[in-house]
Structures are given as structure tokens and as C-alpha cells.
Amino acid sequence: MPKKVLVIRFSSIGDIVLTTPVVRAIKTQLDEVEVHYCTKKQYASLVEANIYIDKVHLLEEGIAALAQKLKAEQFDYVVDLHNNLRTRRLKAKLSRPSAAFPKLNWEKWLIVNFKVNKLPNIHIVDRYLKAAKELGVKKDALGLDYFIPEKDEIETDWLPETHQKDIVAFAIGGAHATKKLPLDRMIELCDKINKPIVLLGGKEDVENGERIADFFDRKHEKEDFKEPLRELGKKALIYNACGKFNINQSASVLKRASYVFTHDTGMMHIAAALKKNVFSIWGNTIPEFGMYPYQTKFTLLESKKVKCRPCSKIGYDKCPKGHFKCMNDIIFDFWLP
């Protein structure tokens, strides 16, 4: 029975959150095991508060320096939940028993390029768990984990008085433009929600957040926006929190929300970990890749009639076809009580 296990996932936010069931299963199902986790330095805050992780190792100075530090730990087993060239180099240097999860690159290539779907109907979490199969761990029913450090729990008065109860969180960011709604469609969605909305995102999302808030504050003439928006007459209550909170503080906002609207991003998976009711927005990527919200109530907002979708397993800076129908054709068919 292994006494010390290393789990590797270098990036990114959502992918790291999706590995948490594996970490928990190893820690709770094996006797007296130490669970170590290795990730990039910029993602340390995602795992440092995880109660199932005994020690965090950070990729800072390259694979060779990292391998030298990890060798001293004398791991019994390595669970590779990234499975790329760097993690394979790292495992080779450690020379310890290991396993990696199936990435399904061939199947993804087929559906992106020829729209031939050979993808298994299985969530990526279950594929991650396969990498720990030799350890004898099994899937539990607890979903994802996300632990917010006490110092990052936001206080009620950090939000405006209008946004201190019955709020909706809308994570407007995304790693690629083709995974995000265009600005006019974000405004249309906010109008449809018609509840106090907290916009979440990074510094790169501040401008879009301001434009959305300005629209409902009538700081811009309607003529500045596209034709359909001129007909909107509601006044959604918008608080633009983009760029104001770190990732854990943003998670704390999610925890307070009654509903979460989000693109296919890390915030979607954090919301799932917090067992939120998630409205998940999909553009050029598809849920069939296996990264839809895990073990929480969710609604998919997507257009299945767009024939060129998916056009990538990740995303682009702009629509390759120029029409962006995968986002523009989504029907916002939902009702919030």
C-alpha cells in the first residue's frame, strides 16, 4: 500500500478544480497516505487550503529543478492528471510507478475536424479517476471540492446594499474570445436575468463589465449598441466586480449567489464545487468534451444547430468563419423564480 502519492496537474483553474475528487478519494480511501500536489506557482491558491492535500509543490524554475526537489520525497506512486510532454519528462526523472489519464486527443481531433463523434460519454473527472485505478480508489458521490481560505471570505458590506441578498453571479470572462458571449449578448442575458447581478472576471474583463453596467445605468445612448438592444427597457441591477477580487474572493461571491451564469471556464467548475445552480454557456467548445458542470444542478445554454461547432478543443481570438453563430444563435430560454 503506497504511503506517499504525488498528484500532478500544472494548469489551469478549471482543470485543477476537476482533479479534486481524485485527491479526496486517495486521501480518504487509503490508510495513512500522504497526498502531495504539484502545480504551477500561479495556481497555488487553488489547492493550498485543500484539506485532503498534505503538501503542495510548485513548478517555478523548470522541470529539472522541480524533479530534484521531488526526488527527495521518495514517492511511492505518481498520478499524472496533465499527461503532457513536461509531466512525462518529470515522471521519467522521478522513476517511480505512475499512471496518467487518457486525454482522448484523437477523438477530439476527429470531432473538431470531421464532426465524427467517437468521444465516450464520460466526464473528465471519471477519466482522471482512471489514473488512480491501480491504487484501488473508487469514485464517491461528493462531487468537486473548493476550499476558500478564511482570509478570502468576503464580508457582506464588500458588496453594494442592492447586492447583498438573492444575487446572481455572472462570470463574464473566458480564456478565448470564442468561448465568451459578445458584449451585446451579455447585455441581453443580463436583461433576461432581471435580478441583482454581480459581474465576475479578471482585470481583462473590467472594460466589458463597465460597458454592461453603463448600459443599464443609461450612461450611454442606446444608439451606441446594436439594434436589438434598443428595445430593452428593463433596468437590471449590475455591480461590476471584475478585477476587484482574487480567485478565492470571487469564489466567495459565487457561494453567496442563488444562481451562477458562466462561460466554459474555471469559474464554472468552482461554482459546481460549491453546489450552485449553474447556467453554463457554450460557444465553440462543446460539453461532449466531458467538462460540463460536475455533480451539481445545471442548464446548458448552447446552439446545437451550428454545423461548424466545435471548431476547436480550446478556442480562438475570433470566429474562424466570421459569423460567430455558436454564440449569436443561443436562445436564452430559462426562467428564474
Question: Any key phrases for this structure?
Answer:
337 residues, alpha/beta, Rossmann fold, six-stranded parallel beta sheet
Q: What does this protein look like?
A:
- The chain is an alpha/beta fold.
- It has two domains: 4-135, Rossmann fold; 150-328, Glycogen Phosphorylase B (Rossmann fold).
- Helices cover 29% and strands 15% of the residues.
- The protein has eleven helices and eleven strands.
- It has helices at residues 13-18, 20-29, 63-71, 85-94, 105-114, 124-130, 183-193, 206-217, 247-256, 266-273, 325-328, and strands spanning 4-8, 34-40, 55-59, 77-80, 98-100, 168-171, 197-200, 238-240, 259-263, 277-281, 298-301.
- The strands form two sheets. The protein has a six-stranded parallel sheet with strand order 8-7-6-9-10-11, with helices on both faces. The protein has a five-stranded parallel sheet with strand order 3-2-1-4-5.
- Helix 3 (63-71) packs parallel to helix 4 (85-94).
- It is globular and about 65 Å long.
